[in-house]
Amino acid sequence: GSYMLSIQGAIKGEKLNISLKTNQQNHGDLVGAVITVAHLGNSTEYVWEGYEITVDVPPYLDYTVSFSEVSCYAAPETFALTSVEGNVRTITGVYNTEVVNVDVTADNGEFMNGQVVTINGVEYIYAGNAITVKIPYGTAYSVSVSDKEDYIVPAKQDFTASQAERNIELQFIYNPPKDLSFYDIYDNPISQNTANCYVVSEARKYKFP
């Protein structure tokens, strides 16, 4: 037994400490993520439970550390490493997401509750408070909102997730149809073809002096 211990003590592998975090303040979404350490065709999986994981790697080996996908986050890139005898190495895998807050307003102060907001292809019903979603880094996405009568609808906006947080305001412009008067029609020739009948029918209701 003492002979075996002396052999093990003579050749020390690399102690690898692995941590995970997000680019957000809350890292709880990562619980359950799987970390895979692979070398010489062998791989071992470790489940993240919120605490640093320590792995003993034999010396002088090329090995990789990879990370599973986590919903709404872009996974860290794989680490390609070479173990060093007696070395202690610490690595951190960072999962990145963009928190998108979408608010819907109107220039006349009207509430826009009930409008359908589409974010990254998913529809949400606006209920008066900002709609918040997480989108993985590197994802190209668009934000748009459904039409509303008497308003000019905000234009669709396109983004690529690349920052920790993004605030987006979709503002409707109040634009009710204008009632055509007798003078509007003759000042605006474009309206004459469609509005002359309206003027004639209205004119019959009145006696002109």
Describe the fold and architecture.
The chain is mainly β and 209 residues long. Helix content is 14%, strand content 43%. It has three helices and 15 strands. The protein has helices at 2-10, 182-187, 189-203, and strands at residues 14-22, 34-39, 42-47, 53-57, 62-67, 79-82, 88-95, 97-106, 116-119, 122-125, 131-136, 140-145, 151-152, 157-160, 165-174. The strands form four sheets. The chain has a four-stranded antiparallel beta sheet, with no helix packed on it. Strands 11-8-15-13 form a four-stranded mixed beta sheet, with no helix packed on it. It has a four-stranded antiparallel beta sheet with strand order 10-9-12-14, with no helix packed on it. A hairpin with a 2-residue loop joins strand 2 (34-39) and strand 3 (42-47). The longest helix has 15 residues, at 189-203. The termini are far apart. The model is unreliable at 1-8 and 191-209 (pLDDT under 50).
Mean pLDDT: 86
Number of strands: 15
For the biggest sheet, the summary is: 4 strands, antiparallel
Q: What is the structural class?
A: mainly beta
Distance from N terminus to C terminus (CA atoms, Å) equals 124 Å
User: What is the general shape?
Assistant: rod-shaped
**SSE succession:** HEEEEEEEEEEEEEEEHH
Low-confidence stretches: 1-8, 191-209
> Taking Cα atoms only, what radius of gyration do you get, to the nearest Å?
32 Å
Our estimate of the beta-strand percent is 35-45%
Task: Output the number of helix runs.
Answer: 3
User: What level of helicity do the residues show?
Assistant: 10-25%
Strand order of the largest sheet: 3-2-5-6
